[in-house]
Design goal:
The chain is mostly beta strands. The protein contains no helices and 3 strands. A 3-stranded antiparallel β-sheet has the order 1-3-2, with no helix packed on it. A hairpin with a 4-residue loop joins strand 2 and strand 3.
């Protein structure tokens, strides 16, 4: 059996499963790590959203987030 070790390991922390219009959704990957002890950096992006959505990624200086603006 061949074992593949992936690096880094991304882990997204969230307690939020569903969000309502107007709610802020925080993106937190602080539990991510490198098996090789390499420093990590993060680049968030919205890959898709409803056609009429104006949502964009924002930061409050600590974490990135977006505000749900469409169903």
């Amino acid at each position: 059996e061949r074992v593949v070790k992936h690096d880094p390991i991304a882990r997204l922390k969230t307690k939020q499963r569903l969000a309502r219009v107007g709610e802020r959704v925080r993106l937190n990957a602080s539990d991510s790590f490198s098996n090789r002890n390499q420093p990590l950096s993060y680049r968030w992006q919205l890959l898709s959203k409803p056609q009429t959505s104006q949502a964009s990624l924002q930061t409050d200086g600590v974490q990135n987030f977006f505000i749900v603006d469409n169903k």
